[in-house]
Amino acid sequence: MRPIKVAILGFGTVGSGVYELIETKQDLLEQLLGGPVRVDAVLVKDVGKSRTIHDDVLVTDDFSEILRLPELDVVIEAIVNVEPGYTYLRRAIEAGLYVVTANKELFANKGFELRQLAEKRGVKVCFEATVAGGVPIIGALKQLLRFNQVVKVEAILNGTMNYILTKMREDQVSLEEALLQAQRLGYAEADPANDVEGFDVLFKVVILLELLTGRKIDWDLVRCSGISDITPADISQASVRGERIKHVGSLVVDDQGQVEAEVRPVSVGESHKLYAIEGVDNAIVVTGDLTGDLVFQGPGAGKYPTASIMIEDLVSIFQSIKKAAVSR
Ligand SMILES: NC(=O)c1ccc[n+]([C@@H]2O[C@H](COP(=O)([O-])OP(=O)(O)OC[C@H]3O[C@@H](n4cnc5c(N)ncnc54)[C@H](OP(=O)(O)O)[C@@H]3O)[C@@H](O)[C@H]2O)c1
């Protein structure tokens, strides 16, 4: 079998993790896919930065060069912001390439359009890493959607916010102090607005809603607030009641497909499944009409958890192509 040829867009925490895992896990990939996986190109913003990339890999800031590569199969995208990623992924799909993305902001804004375009073009767009990083919740929901109806999802989807709320309670410090600690440990961005104001969780809730309903979601439907107004007094009053404040994204789908969704701090008691989720972990409680509550918990971010989940997407794309070829 000829190698599966990959271009990686973005070579930061996630993109470099994808590259390293493809380099170091060739034997396993060959076992899973029946042939090697080869990185032919890496696209970045600043080609002058020093990076550990083999000399025979094209490093470029020009997406047209990527599209001109012979026999490219798949584009793995880990850039930030909606653009230029959206334009690149649209062009990749139009050129008949498969797409794997971790970019939640892009996918919350444009995922519906990309999936529609991919369906028309007969390729796949995989986005497991956009929600809860290393926790394979998209695949689990797709699995459940076959027979169960998912009626409710409640989730902690931002590890940084969960770390801050945990620190505020454990160390009795202000939000600003807990945020500084999160930044020192590399959990929080230098500009934490998307996290603290709840937008990062909003992106993930929109992606889940579009998956569950199959419709384009109007963002105004989702009430969104972050944790910027939470004070140490709120945290200690919750503790007195035997509760903890968690930042929760939740959605309810009725049997007519109508949805209600919100993102906000919630005070939960000991019996709630999100009560014990502490530190940087993510957790998603999915209620199926027949299964009842299922809890998925794990690392919502990080280089190898996120990169490995993107490679899981790559493997499932090419395993399903192989299966389809065999059954023909
Ligand atoms: N970090 C995580 O744990 C995690 C988890 C889940 C999802 N994600 C998502 O994955 C994506 C990447 O995250 P990250 O943490 O890897 O980001 P990062 O470390 O900041 O890396 C971003 C990469 O994108 C490149 N880039 C930025 N603007 C570009 C442009 N205009 N054209 C071409 N390349 C551009 C940068 O190029 P230069 O190298 O030249 O600067 C850099 O290589 C984001 O959408 C994020 O939301 C991240």
Automatic annotation (TrEMBL):
Catalytic EC class: oxidoreductase
Pathways involved: Amino-acid biosynthesis; L-methionine biosynthesis via de novo pathway; L-homoserine from L-aspartate: step 3/3; Amino-acid biosynthesis; L-threonine biosynthesis; L-threonine from L-aspartate: step 3/5
Domain annotation Aspartate/homoserine dehydrogenase NAD-binding: ranges: 10-128
Keyword Amino-acid biosynthesis (UniProt): yes
UniProt keyword DNA damage, yes or no: no
InterPro entries, alphabetized: Asp/hSer_DH_NAD-bd (IPR005106), HDH_cat (IPR001342), HDH_CS (IPR019811), HDH_short (IPR022697), NAD(P)-bd_dom_sf (IPR036291)
Pfam families: Homoserine_dh (PF00742), NAD_binding_3 (PF03447)
EC number: 1.1.1.3
Boundaries of every Homoserine dehydrogenase catalytic domain copy: 136-315
Recorded family membership: Belongs to the homoserine dehydrogenase family.
Protein name: Homoserine dehydrogenase
Organism ancestry: Bacteria, Bacillati, Bacillota, Bacilli, Bacillales
